[in-house]
Design brief:
Elements: E1 2-7, H1 35-85, H2 91-96, H3 100-113, E2 121-126, E3 131-134, H4 148-154, E4 159-163, H5 165-171, H6 176-182, E5 185-192, E6 202-209, H7 210-303, H8 312-343, E7 351-354, H9 356-365, E8 372-377, E9 385-388, H10 389-405, E10 411-420, E11 423-429, H11 437-440, H12 464-474, E12 478-484, E13 488-495, H13 514-518
Parallel strand pairs: 8-10
Antiparallel strand pairs: 1-12, 2-3, 2-6, 4-5, 5-6, 7-9, 10-11, 11-13, 12-13
Helix pairs in contact: 1-7, 7-8, 8-12, 9-10, 10-12
């Protein structure tokens, strides 16, 4: 025999079990198989932008190193010009040129103190772009107009540019012989301003060997590259643990999101099912109300007919039909109102002490013997029950009504009971059509019926067993059912004794919500 138990927590505890899954076991987090691959992909993909960032940074800083090296060389040329050459000259030298003796004196000082590894060549220009001095005597006295850098220097600006052999060859410049010895040169133009004067009296043109400058640039660039590689590698290594922890957090969040999504999907499914059942309930309730109302209206119209005024027997029959259909309609309305009160926590148990056998006999007396016989199997020493007499009576009445609805005419239904801890456990057993195992999981759901069509043989709106569930929950008990198709069903209700109000003025409320009840 298939059995299902619907356990309802006592209302005064306010607890509801949360199984966490359909199987009743709590879901444990699992480690996705792709967690390690996520970190690996991050390591590979992050290496590319890191390398690109390093290259961009190295290129930018390398340009800055080169610019700084050239700036330092230019400042060095200015220092050479103003401290090593300018003291050898006088303002008249720039205006009239150097005499033979002065030329030999200046040339000797320049060759002895300046020319060599640090300075490749020196020229001194006058305001008219004429060469005043050069270590190459053939250039002295010559004019070279159209030199933009020289013009800027004569205006008071320091100018410099990288001067290569190819360019010297194109200009047919005699200094090409200097390239044969030094290679590329840095050409620097420095304004020549004497003390006490504001405007330049001429300009210096100094050629510095580029090879030492290039060596400085190359050395600093190598250091820069090494530091960038070390820094980015260190940063990359630091990011891997962060990526791993981030991957774990994302993994855990993914697991939680999957759980939430699963729960939301289940909630949506239940809401859709509840919506469908409510739609069926509206249709069924409309049909159930229409049937007695149609009968009542039809009988009332018949009683108005003159030919029925003197027929006492027929009037009694009609009045009995009116009473029966009115009771049916009242029972349906009572079920709806009581369900709404229980779901809305507006019905508090009225605790009192009463005799259960007497209550069971009253419930059995309301069943038509021609439809179903009710047998009572109750021990004489059954203790008094302390609970809500009306609610317990409603539970018995609904169980008997359910048994009558699904049993054949003249069948037997048995009510039995025995003590249960400090309360009472009673059983209602019928020999009706029974239920299949898959139906047992749904019988306590609201609006559910095995046959919900409007042409079904048995009436009702699917609230009887659901109302029983709410009542049992309000009383802090539990209910279970055993059933087998073709052999009938056996409902078992276990109710604890509650503390009567006269014994405890602080009695807690006993009603739990529908959500709590259905989750148990």
């Amino acid at each position: 025999m298939t059995r299902i138990r619907e356990r309802l927590a006592p209302a005064r505890t306010g607890r509801a079990r949360d199984n966490g899954s359909a199987s009743g076991h709590r879901l444990l987090p699992t480690v996705p198989a792709g967690a390690a691959r996520l970190v690996g992909k991050f390591a590979i993909l992050s290496l590319i932008p890191t390398a690109v960032l390093g290259l961009i940074l190295a290129r930018d800083l390398s340009s800055q190193i080169r610019a700084r090296a050239l700036e330092n060389a230019t400042q060095s040329a200015q220092l050479v010009a103003r401290s090593g050459i300018q003291p050898l000259l006088a303002p008249a030298d720039l205006r009239t040129g150097l005499s033979r003796n002065r030329l030999q004196s200046v040339d000797a000082a320049v060759r002895a103190n300046l020319l060599g590894r640090d300075v490749a060549a020196v020229r001194i220009w006058g305001l008219d772009s004429k060469v005043i001095y050069s270590e190459d005597r053939t250039l002295i006295g010559r004019t070279f107009p159209g030199n933009e850098e020289l013009d800027e220097a004569l205006e008071g600006k320091v100018e410099s540019e990288l001067f290569d052999g190819a360019r010297a060859e194109q200009r047919i410049d005699p200094t090409f012989k200097v390239f044969e010895r030094y290679g590329d040169l840095l050409e620097v133009y420095v304004p020549l301003v004497f003390s006490g004067e504001e405007r330049p009296a001429g300009a210096f043109e100094i050629y510095l060997p580029y090879r030492p400058i290039a060596e400085i640039i190359s050395r600093d660039t190598r250091k820069l590259y090494l530091l960038i590689v070390i820094g980015l590698a260190f940063l990359y290594v630091l990011l891997l643990p962060i990526a791993y922890r981030t991957g774990r957090v994302l993994r855990d969040q993914t697991v939680k999101l999957k759980r939430l999504l699963s729960r939301e999907q289940e909630t949506v499914r239940r809401l859709q099912e509840l919506d469908r059942m409510k739609s069926e309930f509206v249709s069924t309730a409309s049909h159930e109300m229409r049937t007695p109302l149609t009968t009542i209206i039809g009988v009332a119209k018949s009683l108005r007919q003159p030919q029925f005024a003197e027929d006492t027997a027929l009037r009694e029959e009609f009045l009995g039909r009116l009473e029966g259909q009115g009771d049916r309609l009242l029972q349906l309305v009572d079920q709806l109102l009581q369900t709404a009160r229980l779901e809305g926590r507006r019905a508090e148990p009225q605790i009192e002490s009463f005799d259960f056998p007497t209550l069971a006999q009253e419930a059995a007396g309301r069943i038509d013997p021609s439809q179903m016989n009710v047998e009572l199997d109750l021990p004489r020493d059954l203790p008094p029950m302390v609970s809500d007499r009306g609610m317990v009576g409603q539970i018995l009445a609904n169980l008997l009504s359910n048994a009558e609805k699904y049993s054949s005419r003249g069948s037997v239904c048995r009510i039995s009971a025995q003590p249960w801890g400090e309360g009472i456990r009673f059983h209602v057993e019928d020999h009706g059509v029974g239920m299949a195992p898959h139906q047992l999981e749904q019988i306590f759901e609201p609006f559910w019926q095995a046959d919900s069509s409007t042409t079904r043989e048995r009436g009702g709106v699917g609230l009887g067993l659901y109302l029983i569930k709410l009542l049992v929950s309000a009383l802090g008990g539990e209910i279970s059912v055993e059933s087998q198709p073709g052999q009938g069903s056996r409902f078992t209700v276990s109710l604890p004794n509650r503390i009567a109000p006269e014994h405890d003025a602080d009695l807690p409320g006993g009603l739990v919500t529908v959500g709590q009840a259905s989750a148990l």
